Amino acid sequence: MRSSTSEGNYLAPGVSHSVKIVVLGPFAVGKTTFVGAVSEIRPTSTEERMTKAGEIVDTLRGLSDKNTTTVALDFGRLTLTDDIVLYMFGGPGQPRFDYMIDELMQGALGGVVLVDTARITESWDAMGRMEEADLPYVVAVNTFAASPHYSEAELRKALDLHPSTPLVECDVREKSSAKSPLIALVSHLLSRPSLEPAS
Predict the structure, then answer these.
(1) What are phi and psi of 70, to 5 degrees?
(2) Which of 10, 24, 30, 111 could form a Cys-Cys staple with 126, CB 3.0–4.6 A?
(3) pLDDT confidence band for 81 (50 / 70 / 90)
(4) Which residues of 52-66 are buried (b: 16+ CB within 10 A; e: fewer)?
(5) What are the pLDDT digits (tens) for 107-120?
(6) How far is CA 104 from CA 20, 24, 52, 97, 197, in A?
(7) Is the CB of residue 115 less than 8 Å from the CB of residue 149?
(8) Whether 144 contacts 122, CB under 8 Å
(9) Burial tier of 15 (Cβ tally within 10 Å: 0-12, 13-18, 19+)
(10) Do 79 and 7 touch, CB atoms closer than 8 A?
(11) Closest Cα to residue 87, out of 21, 4, 33?
(12) Taking a C-beta distance cutoff of 8 angstroms, is the pair 98, 30 a contact?
């Protein structure tokens, strides 16, 4: 995967195809950090400082270091090849923004669902949304230092993952590690049978 073919904020001259993906997951799982780590341009982010009023609706249980929140979406770009560019849209994780997710998923080719092993069940909703929209996706376990570690088999069972759904671990703060879910997603998309009718 190559991401340095564009200069500054402009697309490389040969880019002729674009791919849209969505990045979903619960509140404070690392979506904004993920998009920022892999984007070749300065990502668009709607991260705002949390207020006392926000704490009423966004539970901070187990998230004492969390002081900002996404209030709309995150957007980033990554050039994959000389002619293909990837656009990433990260959705907010709070239930009150659920109505936005369906709009973000329009036109997407696939997605990444982020998981914190300390809050596994909180990612079920994002996985369900991907499946309801019939979008292929990968599950990326963000390796928080304080979260428990489980084997792949344990994670697949807890997440009730289909055998063909890729599962990867990554540290979304590190660019090389954060790229692994994107590489897995592209491979997953390429391995799927073509939806185009045979000629």
Answers:
(1) -80, 130
(2) 24
(3) confident
(4) eeeeeebeeeeeeee
(5) 999 999 999 999 99
(6) 10, 10, 28, 11, 27
(7) no
(8) no
(9) middle
(10) no
(11) 21
(12) no
DSSP structural state of residue 7: B
Question: Which pTM was predicted?
Answer: 0.80
113: exposed, middle or buried (Cβ count in 10 Å: 0-12, 13-18, 19+): buried
Tell which residue, 125, 130, 94, has the closest CA to residue 112: 130
Per the CB < 8 A criterion, the answer to whether 78 and 39 are in contact is yes
Place of tokens 């703060």: 173
- Beta strands in the chain, from DSSP E residues, in sequence order: 17-24, 44-49, 68-79, 84-90, 110-115, 137-142, 167-170
Beta bridge partner(s), residue 183 = none
Give me the DSSP letters along 99-129. HHHHHHHTT--EEEEEE-GGGGGGGHHHHHH
- Taking the alpha carbons at both ends of the chain, their separation in whole angstroms is 31
